[in-house]
Amino acid sequence: MNAHRNADALTVAGGRNVLTMVRRFPQRQAAAWAALTEAPILSQWFPFQVELDPRPGAAITFGAPVGGAPVAAGSVTDVRPEQLLAFDWGTDHLAWTLVPDAGGCALTLEHTFDDRAGAPSFAAGWDLCLEALGSVLAGGPVERHRDDGEGHDAYLRLFGLDRGTVTAEGEVLTVRFERQLVGVAERVWEVLADGIEPVPGLPVPVGFTDGDVPAGHVVEVRPPHLLSYEWADDGRVTWELGEGTGYGARLVLTQSGPEPFDTQAALAAWHTRIEDLAARLRAG
Q1: CB neighbours (10 Å) of residue 134?
Q2: What are the DSSP calls for the chain, one per residue?
Q3: Tens digit of each residue's pLDDT (9 = 90 or more) over 73-132
Q4: Is the pTM above the cut of 0.85?
């Protein structure tokens, strides 16, 4: 993982998630401020075409590249020339702060949002944008490219979002993983099924299982979004693939069952299984 990613952080404030990223540039604040507030420069490195008036209360719109129609809108919330630009973007809030740093400047981005599992996608995307900003400030060409999944999953591990949780309801324990993947649901299903179509009442395809969890018969299947199967008396394993960020599907994997249930062993086993799936998706 590069040094920049190691310094980035995900915290919680006021019940919302805050992604903080800091980048240092040899150019002075005035140049960076222009890149933040002048639409022709901003649109060179920002993920959307932007129209804004850097005044508190003014509207800001985000459009698809190459003159596309607006896809989102917000308003400017705070401005201190050459120091702070903050605005709403839908339900999210972004604050860009500039301070002098060793003859150049340091830029801090604070992105506030609700979807915690989406944090690696946001961080990986901003990492590429800030890299492009550095190229713009240096007067060089900007090469737009998409993260291949390595950056996304590096941030996922940095933020601890690869770990599962355990909850109890009465005598039933549930191990749960929620993870943003870098493949669409159809691709994830293809990797998991490995050419075998799951059928209710029949044994579950091995790709949906883990070697440490006894796998019974398929209970419910809705390709490519859901598969549920028995694993013990009154126990159930469920794979759900729903809508995620632009990187791909959102996986929610649960294993539930009555006590005694070795949840720590299940956490370790499913973590290994999901990491293997993620690696296959990146390679694919």
Answers
A1: 20
A2: --HHHHH-EEEEETTEEEEEEEEEESS-HHHHHHHHH-HHHHHHHSSSEEEE--STT-EEEEE-TTTPPEEEEEEEEEEETTTEEEEEETTEEEEEEEEEETTEEEEEEEEEES-GGGHHHHHHHHHHHHHHHHHHHTT---------SHHHHHHHHHTTTT--EEEEETTEEEEEEEEE-SS-HHHHHHHHHTT----TTSBPPGGG--TTS---BEEEEETTTEEEEE-STT-EEEEEEEE-STT-EEEEEEEEEESS--HHHHHHHHHHHHHHHHHHHHH-
A3: 899 999 999 999 999 998 999 999 999 999 999 999 999 999 999 999 999 999 999 999
A4: yes
| AA letter at 20 | T
CA pair distance 274, 207, nearest whole angstrom? 11
Average of per-residue pLDDT across 227-254: 94
Q: Which two tokens stand for residue 129?
A: 């944008």
Q: How far apart are CA 47 and CA 267, in angstroms?
A: 36
Range from 50-54, 158-162, 222-226 carrying the lowest mean pLDDT: 50-54
Distance CA(177)–CA(76), nearest Å, equals: 36
Indicate the CATH number for domain 3-158.
3.30.530.20
Instruction: Kindly state the tokens that stand for 205.
Output: 């395809």
Q: How many of the other CB atoms lie within 10 Å of CB of 61?
A: 16
Express each pLDDT in 186-208 by its tens digit: 999 999 999 999 999 999 999 99
CATH of domain 165-283: 3.30.530.20
Amino acid at 7: A
Identical fold, 3-158 and 165-283: yes
Domain ranges of the chain: 3-158, 165-283
- Give Dmax (Cα) for the chain: 69
